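Below is how a single chain appears once it has passed through the pipeline. First comes the sequence as given, then the structure the pipeline wrote out for it. We keep one example in the README because the format questions we get most often are answered faster by looking than by reading.
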Amino acid sequence: MTLTDDLPIVRSARRVLQTEANAVLQMIEELPADFTSVVELILKTKGRVIISGVGKSGHIGRKISSTLASTGTPSYFVHAAEASHGDLGMISADDICLLISNSGETNELRDILLHTRRFDIPMVAISSNLKSTLMQAADFKLNLPKLPEACAIGMAPTTSTTLTLALGDAVAVAVMEQRGFGSEDFLKNHPGGKLGAQLSRVSELMHDGESVPTVEANTPMSEVLLSMTSKGFGITGVLKNGKLLGVISDGDLRRHMGNLMEKTAGEIATIDPVTVTPDLFAAQALALLNEKKISALMVVDETKRPVGIVHIHDLLRAGVA
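Resulting structure:
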């Protein structure tokens, strides 16, 4: 159902979203001059990116820190108040600091700011006020366009926090791409939940060793049926000289029911079947199973020798879908 503008609530929502969308579009054209320098600074730092902010800026800072950490850049959020009571010790000479304050005059950031100056720790500031104390002290300035907040009274942090979050994402992704941080690296930081399951490899979910159903091409079908029944996958691989010649599925059995017991595995098998390699993403294997409307796939190495079997139930139980 598409909402119309007849209701004040809908008009309010559209106004807020349009205001914030316009702000992001403007920042695309007004990307801070120090943006490239900040990305290069993060890439060469030996320590972590320490982030701090107060209030809504603090919430956004935590998210930016989390995004950096999950995409290959060690990062840590330091609470400004706690920093004044001992947590300054968390900031080392190898770190860089990114301080967030829309006004640039947040008193709670004072001790962290002075700490960076005292120990010559590179400091990046995000603010919309270039003339502020924070921006004047910063080594690198990521200035936000100074635009009205989206709320009716123009005071609640809305536009400014959206811009800060978007700019933080831009920094994190630019760093990620410059590092060559790929899906395998991402998986290392996201082993749990649906994302971890989707990024897992076939090798992590397949059955291997003695559990892989295989028979030689000259095996009588009476023995093939026993193998298929005992393994319970609904298919068996058919081998010739140790390599996968084909597979026999329940469908192949039905198609040859008339003279099934007179045949050998090689005569019944579907030759050159669909297979996967151990390094394929589990999500890709599931897509292939759905596309071909089959329930299991033989897993082969680069020489076409079977090393495992993966069943659709294995993927669904792991949460790949």
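Residues 202-317 form a domain with the CBS-domain fold (CATH 3.10.580.10).

See the next section for the split statistics.
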